[in-house]
Write a structure and sequence with these properties.
single chain; alpha/beta; Rossmann fold
């Protein structure tokens, strides 16, 4: 059991993940939908790529589905995210974005692996700010088209049983304070999904079948918080 838990942790948190950059357009769409509507880039780690949920349950995919249901024209999301990435890993990965390519909306959710790996707050602040600046650049300098989701609290999952969950929560909060501060400096919308993530402590249906990541049900709750801002971009 100990070996299994360690293996799961490596999949989730390791910065030296074997998976390559994932740039995807996973939402089923008609040719017309693929050719029209705004461009959306989602940046992150396992929470954005949706580790242990099906592609249609990833929160960026669910967000696009919800926007389309409200009558908005939006292309399938391009996703640059891989399980285990820190802010530094994501900075390396975004080099794959073609020079000069622009997006109408960019989201960012990154930080859990910095926290788990014991990376410093100072390093996180520096690299997170660089990611914010790059995100603004992808929208042709328009910070109003960028939004950030806070880091969820993995300490509430079954995997974290037997650990000091209060300490994990405090640490997650520290990283989120930094993220919010940096967003405010650049006038970027910060959406706090951490309180909702903590509901999984008493609701296992919000946890994926690996006992560590969050389920599609939780991803949908994040979308409900992100939707008003995303909708306002139109």
């Amino acid at each position: 059991m100990h070996i299994l838990r360690l293996f799961i942790a490596v999949l989730f948190f390791s910065g030296a993940c074997s998976r390559s950059n994932e740039v995807e357009n996973p939402v089923p769409a008609t040719p017309q939908e693929m050719e029209t509507g705004i461009n959306y880039l989602a940046l992150g780690d396992s929470y954005t790529i949706g580790q242990n949920v099906t592609p249609d349950q990833r929160w960026p995919v669910l967000l696009v589905k919800t926007l389309r249901s409200s009558g908005k024209a939006i292309k399938s999301p391009e996703i640059i995210a891989t399980t285990g990435w820190t802010t530094g890993d994501l900075l390396d990965a975004v080099k794959s974005v073609p020079a000069g390519k622009k997006y109408d909306m960019v989201s960012l959710l990154i930080g859990v692996n910095n926290q788990f790996q014991g990376r410093s707050i100072e390093q996180y602040r520096n690299e997170f700010r660089q990611l914010l600046v790059k995100s603004i650049g992808y929208t042709n300098g328009d910070a109003s088209k960028v939004f950030v989701l806070s880091t969820p609290d993995w300490g509430v999952t079954p995997y974290a049983s037997g650990t000091n969950r209060d300490l994990i929560a405090l640490d997650i909060d520290r990283f989120n304070v930094v993220a919010k501060e940096e967003c405010e400096k650049l006038n970027i919308r910060f959406i706090d999904i951490t309180p909702i993530s903590r509901k999984a402590l008493n609701d296992t249906s919000m946890v994926a079948n690996d006992g560590l990541h969050f389920s599609g049900k939780m991803h949908q709750l994040w979308v409900e918080l992100a939707f008003p801002f995303a909708n306002s971009i139109f």
